[in-house]
Amino acid sequence: MRKILINGNKRLAGEVRISGSKNAALAILAATILLPGKTIIRNVPDLLDIKTIIRVLQRLGLRAEYSASQENTVEIWNRGVKHVAPYELVTKMRASFFVIGPILARQGLAKIPLPGGCAIGSRPVNLHIKGLEALGAKVRIEHGFVIAEAAGLKGDRVYLDFPSVGATESVMMAAALAAGETIIENAAGEPEIVDLANFLNLAGAKITGAGTEEIRIQGVKELSPVEYRVIPDRIEAGTFILAVAITKGEALIRDIVPEHIESVVRKLKETGLEIEMLAKDLRVSAKNGFKAVDLKTMPHPGFPTDMQPQFCSFLSLAQGTSVITETVFENRFMCVHELRRMGAEIKLEGQSAIITGVPELSSAPIKVSDLRAGAALVIAGLAAKGETLIEDRDHHIERGYEKLIYKLRSLGADIKEV
Ligand code: UD1
């Protein structure tokens, strides 16, 4: 079990570099199944989830090696892929399920365990299945596995009832090698989708419209191996901005893509934070405090659900009352109960949290339920008076934040693993 001890109420200052995007890297690594030969992916964050997808690729018969010393690079040698994904890895990390599209496209058969629910909601895969069926796959569920078969995938129109990130990625990867044209309607437009499309296009795919709600994929016969660099992690960037801001600090957040964090920055400016956008960096200052705002999570370009728990912590110390409404996941206020134990005043009403700002938070022993809740509690601990002990039994925080403790210490935080 991992425990993190924070001696809070210290102003953060300095600069921090943002790592590569976890979610983009996960999708791109899954997509290497489509590319025969040797592919090199750079700027892949050194995280538990990345280790998991690398193990999935290895169990599928690919050779995949991670090197943190050389620009966080993964080298993949693909000489063919097996069609069964390992149960213990897919149930450990839901994104492992996204290999279903590329395996089906390469092998005509994919047998992938159903990932099941998780702390933030039931998270079904019906839209992935609907998309693959539209491309001609026959899909059945047997003994806890999703089995998809297709003698040859054929492009068609796919309408997603919700712009699911994972389903858009599964269908895009499968359609890259399908015969003819696939049109994904109501597609997700997250920057990670655009990064996956850029990667596939570099490898020879013909994908247009990524980042909009209609993506067109003209299938090609085969893709070729490439070298590619993953985009910076916009959620890590947002998390660090809040970590600095909640301590009334001031810092330079380096290696970001400003357009990727527009909706978050807009909200932060509404709170009164001073934010200066530079070409690839951002300067934040919270010296003059911050006030309450209302926000609602939405698919991109709306406010990202992956930043919502961190805002719950931050707004707990804002002047006034904020209302946060979650529309993407049904159970994503897991950190609220722990925040209340630290003195936050938060009422839950349906899918909304009503947060009345308090002058200070106080330390408490607290438990982490999921990745972003973990980040939220670290943020709260940085501002709280006294020693906050965070128990992260399942290593959730390591799933998504590269060198979090090291980076926060470099900004002056008193934080350590115990
Ligand atoms: C991805 C991100 C995750 C982020 C989420 C929403 C990765 C690895 N993870 O997750 O960090 O929080 O996008 O931005 O990229 N849904 C269905 N049926 C499906 C698929 C999804 O009903 O087949 C629902 C989900 O239950 C959820 C909503 O759609 O309520 C959004 O989920 P989705 O966009 O698919 O999230 P993920 O791709 O799993």
What does this protein look like?
- The model has no long low-confidence stretch (mean pLDDT 95).
- The longest helix has 13 residues, at 234-246.
- The chain folds into two domains: 4-18 and 232-417, UDP-n-acetylglucosamine1-carboxyvinyl-transferase, Chain (Alpha-beta prism); 22-219, Enolpyruvate transferase domain (UDP-n-acetylglucosamine1-carboxyvinyl-transferase, Chain), CATH 3.65.10.10.
- It is α+β, with helices and mostly antiparallel strands.
- It is built from 14 helices and 23 strands.
- Strands 21-22-1-23 form a four-stranded mixed beta sheet. Strands 2-14-16-15 form a four-stranded mixed beta sheet. Strands 4-5-3-13 form a four-stranded mixed beta sheet, with helices on one face.
- The termini are close together.
- The structure holds uridine-diphosphate-N-acetylglucosamine (UD1).
- The site of uridine-diphosphate-N-acetylglucosamine (UD1) has 22 residues, from helix 1, helix 5 and helix 6.
- Residues 23, 26, 94-95, 121, 123-128, 162, 164-167, 188, 192, 305-306, 328-329 line the site of uridine-diphosphate-N-acetylglucosamine (UD1).
Strand arrangement, major sheet: 21-22-1-23
Put simply, the count of helices is: 14
Based on Cα principal axes, name the global outline.
globular
Structure summary, number of beta strands: 23
| Bound ligand species | uridine-diphosphate-N-acetylglucosamine
Q: What proportion of the residues form beta strands (DSSP E)?
A: 25-35%
* Contiguous runs where pLDDT drops below 50 for at least 5 residues: none
Helix content: 25-40%
Mean pLDDT across residues: 95
State the CATH topology of the largest domain: UDP-n-acetylglucosamine1-carboxyvinyl-transferase, Chain
Output the CATH homologous superfamily of the largest domain. Enolpyruvate transferase domain
The major pleated sheet works out as: 4 strands, mixed
Instruction: Tell me the number of structural domains.
Output: 2
Category from helices, strands and their pairing? alpha+beta
Give the assembly state of these chains.
single chain
- So, CATH architecture of the largest domain? Alpha-beta prism
Q: Give the N-to-C terminal Cα separation.
A: 10 Å
What's the level 1 CATH class of the largest domain? Alpha Beta
Subcellular location: Cytoplasm
InterPro entries: Enolpyruvate_Tfrase_dom (IPR001986), Enolpyruvate_Tfrase_sf (IPR036968), MurA_subfamily (IPR050068), RNA3'P_cycl/enolpyr_Trfase_a/b (IPR013792), UDP_GlcNAc_COvinyl_MurA (IPR005750)
Enzyme class: transferase
Function: Cell wall formation. Adds enolpyruvyl to UDP-N-acetylglucosamine.
